[in-house]
Design a protein that fits this description.
The complex is a heterodimer of chains A (about 110) and B (about 110).
Chain A: E1 5-7, E2 10-13, E3 19-24, E4 31-38, E5 42-50, E6 53-57, E7 64-68, E8 74-78, E9 87-94, E10 104-105, E11 109-113
Chain B: E1 3-5, E2 10-14, E3 19-21, E4 24-26, E5 32-38, E6 45-49, E7 60-61, E8 72-74, E9 83-90, E10 99-101, E11 105-110
Parallel strand pairs in B: 2-11
Antiparallel strand pairs in B: 1-4, 3-8, 5-6, 5-9, 7-8, 9-10, 9-11
Classes of the chains: A mainly beta (about 110), B mainly beta (about 110).
């Protein structure tokens, strides 16, 4: 158990809908990262939050957004869903800093858009 | 821009044979390199990182800055090594340590 919790584990929804994925980081970790894993693109970095502030953005679509709350949990919002958004979405957390760059991953949320 | 290349999608070896999973990277600064492993239906977990220079489950990886490589090696493969292996790079650009992953290599160890 990495200590990172993601809910829900599975999500099936229709095109055009909006969903929210939730991540609780390891206790004490200030950084939360979101990744998308698809068959053709592999693991793609989406966005990072550090202590409530956006720190870095990767290949995140404008239809997607995220936030990190004062209790450090994070949510990834996906809207106007398309079939191509079907993927495994991972959250990871780390303590940040040069000596602490190991990221601990959650089990992922499998999103299926039908 | 940082990039990680794993040239093999699938690697099949017999039990007891040596294993080498290739990883090449592109990064302008001094990166941290990692190998993550994903066993079937499990979460990604860190296997090893170049900075610690340790051996985990018999695996080692040496950072070769001249060849910009970080190949993962094990002298004798075991069936339980079958998994997806991802090479990853972490840079410190703009104070962020996000990981850039390769596309992964699926290792299949044949009994």
């Amino acid at each position: 158990d990495s200590g990172v919790t993601q809910t829900p584990k599975h999500l099936i929804t229709a095109t055009g809908q909006r969903v929210t994925l939730r991540c609780s980081p390891r206790s004490g970790d200030l950084s939360v990262y979101w990744y998308q894993q698809s068959l053709d693109q592999g693991l793609q970095f989406l966005i990072q939050y550090y202590n409530g502030e956006e720190r870095a953005k990767g290949n995140i679509l404008e239809r997607f957004s995220a936030q990190q709350f004062p209790d450090l949990h994070s949510e990834l919002n996906l809207s106007s869903l398309e079939l191509g958004d079907s993927a495994l979405y991972f959250c990871a957390s780390s303590a940040e800093g040069p000596a602490n760059t190991e990221a601990f991953f959650g089990q992922g949320t499998r999103l299926t858009v039908v | 821009a940082q990039r990680v290349t794993q040239p093999e999608k699938l690697l099949s070896v017999f039990k007891g044979a040596p294993v080498e999973l290739k990883c090449n990277y592109s990064y302008s600064g001094s990166p941290e390199l990692f190998w993550y492993v994903q066993y079937s239906r499990q979460r990604l977990q860190l296997l090893l990182r170049h900075i610690s220079r340790e051996s985990i489950k018999g695996f080692t990886a040496d950072l070769n800055k001249g060849e910009t490589s970080f190949h993962l090696k094990k002298p004798f493969a075991q069936e339980e090594d079958s998994a997806m292996y991802y090479c990853a790079l972490s840079g410190s650009g703009a104070g962020s340590y996000q990981l850039t992953f390769g596309k992964g290599t699926k290792l299949s160890v044949i009994p």
